[in-house]
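so the lab meeting is tmrw and i was supposed to have these ready like two days ago... anyway. pasting both below. for each one the top line is the aa sequence and the line under it is the structure tokens. i havent really looked at them closely yet so no promises
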Amino acid sequence: METRRVVLRFPKHLLDKPITSQLVRQFDLEFNILRADITQESEGLLIMGLTGKKANLEKGLRWAREQGVEIQPLSKDVVRNEKACTHCGACINVCPTDALTIDLETRDVIFNANRCIACELCVPACPFRAMEVAF
């Protein structure tokens, strides 16, 4: 079993299609919606964790792309600007998943994108705007 956190962008013409439902049913995947922003006037954005057999995940994501859904790993949309980060630690206390932690030896803030759920609480907490979210 493998889990991937992905960002799915649905173009307007796909908003009324049951793409997500078919994705999880046809490829025997489990899903956890982390965030959804869908309006009928524009594109849809769905951030989710998908769990299943690696081959099924790959087939399912390929199928969704073939339907016209733009897909990329969540780690590409939530990043820390290393030049702006001063490792002050202001972001650590607001992170609900411990995606941001501090190395007790170096006192550096560590960002684990695999634990991030894109809640964006770290963005306003950072006085130097080092956390960047692309959606």
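ok protien two:
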Amino acid sequence: MPNWLRSYGLLLRWNILRLRTELPLFLIIQTLLSVGVVLGFSFLMPSYDRETALYLTTGAPTVALVTVGMVLAPQMVAQQKLRGMFDYQRAMPVPRMAMLAADATVWMVVAIPGMIAALLVGVARFDLTLSVSPLVLPAALLVALVAVSVGYAVAYLVKPEVVGVITNLILIMTMMFSPVNYPAERLPDWLAAAHQFLPFQYLAQALRDTLDTPAGGLSAVPFLVLAGWAVVGLGVTYRVMTRRA
């Protein structure tokens, strides 16, 4: 464990130094995108009730984490592959999970300002009062873990030339065709059924229910499903990392 923690600390510092010029830009774009989801989507609706306002306000943090974990992170991995940096990292004599944890920490920090800004803007824009659960932080960490692990699994499995296409499709799916910013009942039946097996609606539900606790209490279903997706994402990533080591 001491070696793992030391490796994690050194890799985290190395990641921050390596990305020091890009991180400010990522933070700005991420924050603008998250706030834009709340404000931009609200302009499409001539009127809204509390449910609509709640979905938009809590959906924006989900979009923020998906954008960072499933779009930005895998695209950076793809660039590292093309430049040869990826193989250099994997040749380092460090625990593979420490490498992934250091990367995930950086991306989680990048997502935080956008999440907070979107929540504050949504609460002010719709005059919402939220009933926040103490489990909101573990839920946010679980959502971030799933986003990063699935994003890295995609980046490791496919060729770097097609990572951008796949991640852009994921972003479009999350923002427009997933029950993240609106209820699943508004989707066609076949698409709503497909989302029973995809992580997007559970990512949103975990954040939404812990930011505004339902009267009947929290459901365990989204957390169990997300735990399964995290295991799959981490398992695939670890398998690829160790196979080529």
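from a quick look at the 2nd one: The chain has ten helices and no strands. The CA atoms of residues 179 and 186 lie 8 Å apart. will dig more after coffe
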